[in-house]
Design a protein that fits this description.
The protein contains no helices and eight strands. It is an all-beta fold. The protein has one domain. A hairpin with a 2-residue loop joins strand 6 and strand 7. The mean pLDDT is 91.
């Protein structure tokens, strides 16, 4: 079976949440959250929304509650696999409305 993405890609995709025929994804290296509408047979996904903001801090996972997306900021660029330094603690969970 072959899948098709329309309107974007999932490069650097990390955390995913699926609810019915809607998929949300965080893309860590680009500080992006995307929302996708899936076809009835789940073989095609059309990007319906995306938000890119460096305040997401290399997001690694997400959870949806009502109309809010909660995103974990990994800080992988601060002492992790993507750069030197020391992470700021406590780690942040960023709330994004309307995605």
């Amino acid at each position: 079976m072959r899948s098709t993405l329309d309107g974007g890609d999932l490069t650097h995709g990390d955390g995913l949440e699926l609810a019915g025929s809607t998929l949300w994804a965080v893309q860590n290296a680009t500080d992006t959250i995307t929302r996708w509408a899936l076809s009835d047979d789940y073989t095609t996904a059309t990007r319906t929304r995306h938000v890119t903001d460096e305040s997401l801090g290399l997001p690694t996972t997400l959870v949806r509650r009502d109309n809010c997306t909660l995103v974990v900021s990994s800080q992988f660029d601060k002492g992790g696999p993507m750069g030197p330094g020391t992470p700021t603690t406590p780690f942040k969970v960023v709330a994004v409305d309307g995605i």
